[in-house]
Design brief:
The protein is built from nine helices and 21 strands. It is of the alpha+beta class. Strands 1, 3, 4, 6, 9, 10, 11 and 13 form an eight-stranded mixed β-sheet that branches. Strands 2, 5, 7, 8, 12 and 14 form a six-stranded antiparallel β-sheet that branches. Strands 16-15-17-18-21 form a five-stranded parallel β-sheet, with helices on both faces.
């Protein structure tokens, strides 16, 4: 059914890869990256690359009168080697037409990375590309965005359409760059438009760039430099859950590291509004330090609460320290603000909206996105448009 469709150039053509920091060519086609290629040499472990190439918030944008659009795609899915030998889940693709959600397609499983019990890569099972087809699209010229699965790597091998494809019309919207953890990458969302930064962006009328990196929000300098070098009108940084759960910092080292991260971002964005967001509720580490483990499917903190007195971090401590840092910096920087993550999802809501004690459910992500749109972008919000 593809012989009547026209091939669309993947590079230097009409397709815009919105939400990506860099687009690179691969043996399979093209790959939209959420961290630039140069950062790879500085990654501490392979999981960072898996998240940097996941598609959260990334979409292919173009203008066309086509009623059929096809993509040949190769996904790469990470799965535990034990218990999941035949994975069938790679998330979903989703299409919008003139901004309106207009279809979801199940993502095929291509390559498989097998992980051992320590979440280290133990094997690679190659796969091949598969065709994703969106048909029955409305007639007439329209703005198309094809949103990639948020939690897997997707290489685009081909794009075809049954009418000419032109570059997308500039949106005229402000660009919002957001950085966070798995709670911002939103692997558990039902579809790409269910990612909470996407929900918030669509509600607020801004264009999202989501650098939510599952398990990898550690104030890494290469991430700060990537943000520094990326154009953005407003920036938010949702910090705390990863380095609390892994006991990465003590109170003595956290403050200077946050300041250093912010200093680097400010080198490229001297007056851009920045909103520092503390963690949402996570009962296990509210008052007990990490490191955390899973015990019989229960998310558990293994630290000693008495160690808080000598600098161990809990979420209560992290929220207070982030609030203090922002208050101190705001004396010289009027464009920085703080948002308490408990205003996005509170402790009394954890049982309802945290699926396994850590990550929100799809309904939880929607709640966070709607609240963030109101608190950050609404009247009086730190990221609201001037005037």
């Amino acid at each position: 059914m593809t012989d009547v469709l026209q091939q669309v150039p993947l590079i230097d053509g009409p397709i815009a890869y919105r939400g990506a920091l860099e687009v690179v060519t691969t043996e399979a086609g093209v790959l939209a990256r959420r961290l630039p290629q140069w950062t790879v040499a500085q990654y501490p472990e392979a999981s960072m690359e898996r998240q940097a190439t996941a598609g959260s918030g990334v979409r292919l944008a173009f203008r066309t009168a086509a009623t059929v659009v096809e993509l040949d795609v190769l996904t790469t899915v990470a799965m535990m080697a034990e218990g999941e030998p035949n994975p069938d889940d790679a998330g979903n693709f989703e299409i919008t037409v003139d901004g309106v959600p207009s279809g979801v397609r199940k993502a095929p499983v291509g390559n498989v990375i097998e992980l051992d019990a320590a979440f280290q890569e133990s094997a690679f099972v190659p796969g091949g590309p598969t065709t994703i087809r969106f048909d029955g699209l409305p007639a007439g010229a329209k703005e198309i965005e094809v949103w990639l699965p948020q939690w897997v790597k997707t290489e685009v091998a081909a794009v075809r359409a049954d009418a000419p494809v032109d570059p997308p019309t500039a949106t005229g919207r402000r660009v919002w760059l957001h950085h966070g953890s798995s709670i911002s990458q939103c692997n558990e969302a039902a579809s790409p438009l269910g990612v909470w930064p996407v929900i918030a962006a669509r509600a607020a009328g801004v264009d999202p760039v989501n650098i939510g990196l599952s398990g990898n929000c550690y104030l890494d300098p290469f991430v700060a430099r990537s943000i520094r070098d990326t154009p953005a009108d407003v920036i938010s940084l949702k910090l705390g859950i990863n380095f609390t759960c892994r006991a990465t910092y003590r109170l003595r080292t956290l403050g200077p590291t946050v300041h250093g991260f912010l200093d680097t971002v400010r080198e490229g964005h001297p007056t851009t509004p920045i909103l520092v967001v503390s963690p949402i509720a996570c009962p296990a580490v509210e008052r007990t330090p990490g490191p955390t483990v899973w015990r019989n499917d229960v998310f558990t903190a293994t630290g000693n609460p008495a160690d808080v007195a000598i600098g161990a971090l809990t979420l209560e401590v992290v929220r207070a320290e982030l609030r203090r840092i922002v208050a101190e910096r705001s004396k010289q920087d009027p464009n920085i603000a703080y948002l308490d993550g408990l205003d996005l999802l509170a402790l009394h809501e954890a049982d309802e909206f945290l699926g396994e004690g850590l990550h929100p459910t799809p309904a939880g992500y929607r709640l966070i996105g709607e609240r963030f749109a109101h608190l950050a972008f609404g009247p009086g919000g730190a990221l609201a448009a001037a005037g």
